[in-house]
Input
Amino acid sequence: MDRVSLVAGLVVVVEVAMAVWLLDYLAMFCTAYIFPLLEIIITTTQARNVSSNSTAVDLNWYPPNATQINNLSAVINGTGVHGFIFNSSFASGSKGYNWCSMPHVNKDTYPVADESYTLEYVEVIHRHHKRTPYASNTFPTESDPWYCDDEGLFFYGKPLDPTGNDSSSTYWSVYTSSSNPFRPQGFNGTCQYPQISRGGLDDSWQHGKDLYAVYHDLLGFLPDNANEQVSYRVTNNVITSQVAGMVVNAMYKPPDDFPLLIQPDSIDSLEPIYTCTTASTLYSTYGVGSIDPNWTAHLTASQSLYNLLDTISGVSPTDSGFHLSLDHYFDNLSSRLCHAKPLPCKIGNPTKCITQAAADSVFRLGEYEYSYIYRDAPQSLQASTASYGIWIAELAENVRNRITRTDPTIYRHNIAHDGSIARLLSVLQVDVMVWPGMGAELVFEVYTKGDGELFVRILWSGQILRSSNPSLGRFDMLPLGILLAYFDGLVGVRAIMVPKLCGSP
Output
């Protein structure tokens, strides 16, 4: 072979090698940059397709269904509590109202979506689990003790990033001193008022286990280990953190310290705590403490019940906390029954006791009050929108960020309170309103279908939620754009309307 032919051959080899290298480089470049960019463009287009600007929804208030719950005559003259349970914990497979541990998502009752839908995002919010009553809801003198020696409340700090001296795992041990002449407010014993009880801790663990069994084991949606795809959030009330520890352990058993998201106390949107003067004023004009005849009617009709309760409990008839609503008596009596404690008797007269029938009357009235405050009163939507609008906007932003893949989180878990869940149900205009019991749960599921159509499903107590608002209706694969337009119309993107709704400059 002459020198010219050799050179020509080498040139061909080099050109082929360069072509192969270039193709390999282009493939790597497309995989690393072009394809992700196209995905962002596609998902951004999907997000624009669900923009509130292109979807018209009805933002008006609509009343809930007329039921025995919000019928004052049935409440005053009825018996029982609408078939609701107030004396046991959750049993897997149950769908009925159980104040002590409300039904939640679990494998036995979960409505699996059609296989043509792909689950993209889940956000859970639920009330903490059962607890001791708040001290303000206990009687002036409680005859029975309440012991919590079967659990520990762990409170301690630990150096992180960088690590430093290690910290001991310390917990509170409640005691009273023989040298302290004052009686503690609440029951004698070794509990805080409130604290999640041992039974409530176990219910919390079961709640987490059931969620993991559905979203990991059944659907294959959750990751095997806790990572940046999952997050957990609590309020500034420590009882939500007590629940979170059990939930997280049941789901992931993280080997290391695990973060719980929490907002500053003064602006926490989950509880909520942020200042909203307009909402507070509005609630006070038609609800607790108001002279609105629609509110005072049930209090007037309950006077004979109040006389009985006051006589046995020792609560003064002038105690406004116990007499502006049934809240305090409801909490006291339901806490006892949820923990298999007897209903109270008059101190010094053990034959004069609050009967189950009287307790049932308190529970019926409490359910009536929550229905009125958060759904039956026409002002309820405005009050709830203002006071829970920031969390609503955060939920909408979380969904949008997942759609556009700007946030890796696919599962968010919020542990909150009855007032949190009640306001959210109020904004969603649930068709039958109840007082959210212990562990009461709402789940928002976002799905894609076909060429990227987006849908949302909302589960309340583990089943499809139904709204009285005709634009929303049954939340079973509702086009996502409708829900986002509804939220945006009420509170604005990123809650831009909330300061004005709350009366702030």
The chain is about 40% helix and 10% strand.
